[in-house]
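Review form for a predicted model. The reviewer records the input and the model, then writes brief findings.
Reviewer: anonymous (R2)
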Amino acid sequence: MQQPPRPPQPDGQPAGPGRPGRPARGRSGPTRTFGAPAASLTALMALLTVVTGLVEAASLLALGTVFTGMQTGNVLFLAFGTLGEGGLSVVGPATSLGAFVLGALAAARLERRLEAERHRWFVIALLIEAVLVAGAAVTAWDLPPVRSSPTGRHLATIALLAATMGMRNVTAMRVSVPDMPTTLATRAMTAFVAGSALGHDPAFGHARGATARRAGSVVAMFAGGLAGALCIHRGWPLQSLLLTAAALSLLAALARVPQPRLATTR
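Model under review:
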């Protein structure tokens, strides 16, 4: 006997597991969709990339051979130092790696909770960043630069900055502005070269503003690193450099940019 047709649903589509636009029961959970980034949000991410350059200049040139945001370098420094090669200390990279992980964990739980409760999680995350970097400046007050064998205060400053950069990585990945990760330039540089007229690789796309974002990411990192190195070269106290970075993070938090919308569909 032929089955009667199922009644239409409110959207006009027949019920059933094969309905267009609705995944079948039992598939994976929510996925996030991101709209095209506003120009103001892209500029803000470039500013945060400058902050990363300042922080990395402070850590690498004044706190020992250690990164706080670019953890690939710390993994290698830790590997080299384990074998005693290059006179590298393992204490600084290990401290940075551990603090980075804790910062990323804290940011993931906090930002998810804030988003679920409809708070301005992006602004709050940047405010916390500014406070942590300012705290690192206080810890590093009148602290002399060191190339190796960091003291307890050097390690405390490293830990605060690395935890901050761990939080920042989570924030930047949640915002997901294409080609603007804010803590590294390798992927943006690769996409810029491979997607250029010379590289001519369509896999990297040519979306509106992509070339400018990729170039801006690299330039912003260079500018932040150059400014930080210049400050140290001219004898700026370490706390002054870190307070400048904190002020830029605070400026980013207070900037009038659209709140990133992380739409969740099931």
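Findings: Residues 8-35 have pLDDT under 50 and may be disordered.
Further findings: The beta strands are 31-33, 263-265.
Recommendation: see findings above.
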